[in-house]
Design brief:
single chain; 3 helices; alpha+beta; six-stranded mixed sheet
């Protein structure tokens, strides 16, 4: 599988998400890629990225569907780009079995171009939290 742009990877990520395809999602990433999920867990290779997404797809994300609201690309070099994928998701299953409220967030994909096209080297997913602000804790200060 070859991707001709970072945006094509963003589209493929959502396609595989909606197909509940952890293995296919994992193949979008470099073998040694890193993924930080919305709660700060770090998966340190393609196999962990695929496995942990599949666990979610088989449980609380089994009915979840994502859509891309927009994508913003920032080229860092001829072969490296950062892509912000603004997403919306519905259908998450809450711990009590009820359908969760829709969520929105931003997925940052750091992509690199190799001989066989673009792939994802690093990703970080962030939930948008309307009404929240960042407040430093005393432990975080200098």
């Amino acid at each position: 599988m070859s991707f001709d742009s970072p945006e094509a990877l963003g589209e493929a990520f959502i396609d595989r998400w909606n197909a509940n395809d952890g293995e296919g999602l994992g193949r979008l990433f470099d073998a040694d890629a890193r993924f930080v999920n919305v709660v700060g867990l770090i998966w340190r290779d393609r196999a962990a990225i695929a496995r942990n997404h599949q666990i979610a797809f088989d449980s609380f994300f089994k009915d979840a569907r994502g859509t891309i609201r927009r994508m913003e690309r920032h080229d860092l070099a001829d072969t490296v780009a950062a892509l912000h994928v603004h997403w919306r998701m519905t259908g998450q299953i809450e711990r009590d079995g009820r359908a969760g409220a829709p969520r929105r967030g931003i997925l940052l994909l750091v992509c690199r171009k190799g001989g066989d096209g673009w792939s994802i080297a690093v990703a970080q997913n962030t939930d948008l939290m309307p009404g929240h602000v960042t407040v430093p804790s005393p432990a975080a200060e200098g």
